[in-house]
Amino acid sequence: MSPVVLxxxxxxxxxxxxxTLVAVALGTGWALAxxxxxxxxxxxxxxWHLHLLARWAAATxxxxxxxxxxxxxxxxxxxxxxxxxxxxYQRDLAHTIERFTSAAQALPDGMVVxxxxxxxRWANARAQRLLGLDLTRDVGQPLGNLVRHPEFIRYLDxxxxxxxxxxxxxxxxxxxxxxxxxxxGIEEKLLIARDITRLEAVARMRRDFIANVSHELKTPLTxxxxxxxxxxxxxxxxxxxxxYLQLMHxxxxxxxxxxxxxxxxxxxxxxxxxxxxxxFPVMPLLLELAADAKALSAGRHTVALDIGPGNxxxxxxxxxxxxxxxxxxxxxxxxxxxxxAGGTITxxxxxxxxxxxxxSVTDTGIGIAxxxxxxxxxxxYRVDRSRSRxxxxxxxxxxxxxxxxxxxxxxLDVISELGKGSTFTVVLPASRVRWAVAEVQATNxxxxx
Length: 449
Known about the structure:
By secondary structure, the chain is of the alpha+beta class. The protein is built from 14 helices and 13 strands.
């Protein structure tokens, strides 16, 4: 038998025994009186504890379980134990919910929980920023009333959530969002919003790159193909024949330069292509670059050297000599291409007070408008397409320069003015520049006083 039942029988049994003794000793009248008083006491006892139980049940969920007597003590003790278990379970559940909420808040994507009627129930901070929501006022509001992009509204109403929808952000100009809804639970849905602005930019750059490569190859291929057909179909004079072959050769060289530049860019971007560093003197490199510049100019320009006093000629650079020579050479060839005949190209190298090195190419050419300067290192970006093609550039030279400098922790500084010329300066960090003190001292001691 249950201990609670046994404890509850103690009082009735005691009253029954007492009533029997009173009946034997004093008679039936007194026995009935004793029974009535005992029954009233037992009823009052239980009614009082029922009152305590009812009051506790009507109180707040965290109200303390009342104290009881006798059988009710055991019952209330069991309730108290269950209340403690429930409180512990609620604490664990609250902790779990808090962890999941914290995890959802930490996600880089926006998360919004909506019900079956598309009303907002919860959103993390990222979603509030991306979609312009505010949980203090927007809980219970229809999502379509707050995110009013036509494409998203159609997606939300269609009910086909197998794919995501890409929309322009209404909060940030130029930002692009990918939004997908995932049904879960009973009449609940989870909206996931992701900022794909960078991914879209990369995809756009890839599309533009493919289009530009195709366009750049199409022009010389069309010329070569046309001349080949002409040579096959017509009997030409030897002079014309030689002229066509010369033009075909020039176009083939243009394609070869483009392919070579593309391969160079690919190699520079490859993670497996580590920089092979050596220490090499600056002066021999500058002399080589000046000689190449004079050969490319073919006497149409004045090529000058400007070396910083004392330390510039004795400096050395730590890095990949071929890569830096290629980058410097691209800057020089650009200066020659865009400087009219009779202009001056000046190559310089100086050391700053902080130990960094500055290689510069200054020309007296056509100059560049300020709005074009930030985009000069983009692939195939040309300030003037017709002029660029006429000078024979591939549109990849400055992109190659950019990637070489990135591999050497260097920067490119451009100063230009329309009609007056440009200065392109490569700033090498001090960690990549060495000043040969001994060589400078030897030079100073050998010089006449």
